[in-house]
Write a structure and sequence with these properties.
The protein is α/β, with parallel strands linked by helices and about 240 residues long. It has helices at about 5-10, 50-65, 85, 90-105, 120-125, 145-155, 160-165, 175-180, 195-200, 210-215, 220-235, and strands at about 15-20, 25-30, 35-45, 70-80, 110-115, 120, 135, 140-145, 185.
Length: about 240
């Protein structure tokens, strides 16, 4: 789905969402409830300026104090890997945005990410993955790290990683694999109105514990829980 199609399906009665340089900011009514909207469009490389701008919008929502949900729409490139962005502290800017979204969640604002296009690396982590609930549309192309980059970092041959990706979702980019590892809560049906589907998630009680990792890696989650219980028993 294109951005225009996504917005029309989410907000059939109109919205006040502005597009500026590939960034989305504004507000809309979703099934009778006000939501604040931020996001990235047009596969924009996500740099320090963009991170600070969206973080400012999230802080404004928190400061307003009305508990409005925050919807994060994402179609980005990876983080902008320029010398300027790095010198200005891109890693801190991305971290700041992620922490603002997490603080909004702690302050009572439901945070929902919606992947409708591509996203990768730091841009993915600081936006969609920082929300409490992450939804996606078929055809979305998320990847924390592509296999060639993973090969350079791990020093493993690309062929080895491709083989591992066939059987182990944690090694593989792509929507299906991120669903398997628990990062994506649900894939929406584009044939149905998106407003009702997102509103259904907004209407669910907020789980104050993020259980996505446990869904995707149940054995590791069981080990972690047992270690936690043993540590508590030893205190």
């Amino acid at each position: 789905m294109t951005l225009d199609e996504v917005l029309t399906s989410l907000f059939p009665h109109g919205h006040a969402i502005e597009r500026a340089g590939g960034l989305l900011t504004g507000r809309a009514e979703l099934n009778g409830a006000r939501v604040d909207v931020i996001g990235v469009a047009d596969r924009l490389p996500f740099g320090i300026d963009e991170a600070v701008k969206l973080a400012s919008q999230v802080l404004d929502t928190i400061e307003r104090g009305d508990g409005a949900p925050i919807l994060v729409l994402v179609d980005s490139d990876s983080q902008r890997m320029s010398k300027r962005d790095e010198l200005l502290g891109l890693n801190e800017g991305l971290s700041h945005l992620a922490k603002c979204l997490m603080q909004a969640d702690l302050a009572g604002h439901r945070t929902i990410g919606l992947l409708y296009g591509h996203t990768a690396a730091g841009a993915f982590i600081a936006t969609a993955l920082a929300t409490r609930t992450l939804l996606a549309l078929p055809g979305a192309e998320p990847e924390v790290m592509d296999l060639p980059s993973m090969s350079r970092v791990t020093k493993l041959p690309l062929d080895v990683l491709k083989e591992k990706a066939r059987t182990t979702a944690v090694f593989a980019p792509g929507l299906d694999n991120l669903v398997k590892v628990g990062a994506v809560d649900a894939v929406l049906d584009p044939a149905r109105p998106l407003d009702a589907q997102v509103a259904e998630w907004l209407g669910k009680p907020a789980d104050r514990v993020d259980r996505r990792a446990a869904r995707g890696r149940p054995v590791a989650a069981d080990v972690a829980q047992r270690v936690y219980e043993l540590a508590r028993a030893a205190v």
